[in-house]
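Wait, can you check?
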Amino acid sequence: PLTVEDVMSIYNKEKPLGIIVQFGGQTPLNIAAELEKRGAHILGTSPAIIDMAEDRDQFNAMMRKLNIPMPESGMAVSVEEALEIAHRIGYPMMVRPSYVLGGRGMEVVYDDDMLRNYMAAAIDVTPERPILMDRFLQNALECETDAISDGNHAFVPTVMQHIEQAGVHSGDSACVIPSVEISEENKELIRKYTTA
């Protein structure tokens, strides 16, 4: 596995302009802050912005500030908290560990028993790393986009459509470009939200 020590060894030997952590899944994102603390120059998205995107409270606050709608959600560290959130929002719920990219450990739960089983099997759940719970949107289309920004302007090359049902682990899914079932109106809205 990729470690801070391995990356710093290469960084110190090769003396690059910096390190781009956006490629390679969750591990590079997880070690970005430590790399920066050890003196590595991070190119692209900073560790502070990565944390803002992955910290549910900060992310929700940003979405509200930008007036971008999202499903009702909550965070839980215990079975009791999880059940309270599920009863407030309603089933089905998408549940997953925090600070995980691409849906690893993600599951759709349909009732209290499934939620209890998920919480019982969850590992490393702490107040800093709670279980994330979102209303599951039945029959939704999943899409994604990437953007490139210089800090002032953002460029959105395309909107990709996942061909599996929403909720499939993104590492196990495929996308199509151009998207087939997403209307031009919705693609434009996605571009607007991406560049907000």
